[in-house]
Design a protein that fits this description.
The structure holds 2 protein chains of 2 kinds. By secondary structure, chain A is an all-beta fold. In chain A, strands 2, 4, 5, 6, 9, 10 and 11 form a 7-stranded mixed β-sheet that branches. In chain A, strands 1-3-8-7 form a 4-stranded antiparallel β-sheet, with no helix packed on it. By secondary structure, chain B is mainly beta. Chain B has no helices and 11 strands. In chain B, strand 4 and strand 5 form a beta hairpin. Classes of the chains: A mainly beta, B mainly beta. Chains A and B meet through strand 5, strand 9 and strand 10 of A and strand 5 and strand 10 of B.
Chain lengths: 115, 111
């Protein structure tokens, strides 16, 4: 059973370009979370998705950021017109559909560098 | 007030020492609690879940006090390999059961 897969592991974009980050959850997991971690800082919640639904996007910047988790395929975090401040590690985590005390498992992250 | 607050680090301890981390959370309706470990530039990994009755896994003991909204992690006989950042994590209830992370406490175990 493969773990949470994120790609690419490293992504370099010029200012103004689009960044597209992918996350394939663990098999059987239908909940996906995206977190951002700036250098020397903690994990900041961005968005929580279930298949085809955004459940909580309270941590997403209002502009340029969007996320989806389609019925088929990976979850995508899209950042349009990237700026230097978007440089960070973006982690995806997944958890199974049951409610209750279910932990989440993380992918290895995508390190975005905006030049 | 932050949703999840942790001891500010770093903790520098000698090998073999016992060290304790504390964490408080603000949402009294929170249901699930965890400690994660994060090594430098790596993804967080689950260390252990935290139950009201307290639970132990080898050298690690976790405690939850729901009345005080307080979580603790005790590490006995510290090893060099325990050096990492320890993250207190709380899961809320309801439809939006996101995981909320504390900012982490850094532990450095030295010879």
């Amino acid at each position: 059973n493969a773990g949470v897969m994120q790609n690419p592991r490293h992504l370099v974009r010029r200012r103004g370009q689009e960044a597209r980050l992918r996350c394939s959850p663990m098999k059987g997991h239908s909940h996906v979370y995206w977190y951002r971690q700036l250098p020397e800082e903690g994990l900041k919640f961005m968005v929580y998705l279930q298949k085809e639904n955004i459940i909580d996007e309270s941590g997403m910047p209002k502009e340029r950021f969007s996320a989806e988790f389609p019925k088929e395929g990976p979850s995508i975090l899209r950042i349009q017109q990237v700026v230097r401040g978007d440089s960070a590690a973006y982690f995806c985590a997944s958890s199974p559909p049951e409610r209750g005390r279910t932990e989440a498992f993380f992918g290895q992250g995508t390190r975005l560098t905006v030049v | 007030r932050k949703e999840v607050e942790q001891d500010p680090g770093p903790f520098n301890v000698p090998e073999g020492a016992t060290v304790a981390f504390n964490c408080t959370y603000s949402n009294s309706a929170s249901q699930s609690f965890f400690w994660y470990r994060q090594d430098c530039r790596k993804e967080p990994k689950l260390l252990m879940s935290v139950y009201s009755s307290g639970n132990e896994d080898g050298r690690f003991t976790a405690q939850l006090n729901r009345a005080s909204q307080y979580i603790s992690l005790l590490i006995r006989d510290s090893k060099l390999s325990d050096s990492a950042t320890y993250l207190c994590v709380v899961r809320s209830t309801g439809t939006a059961s996101k995981l909320t992370f504390g900012t982490g406490t850094r532990l450095q175990v030295t010879l």
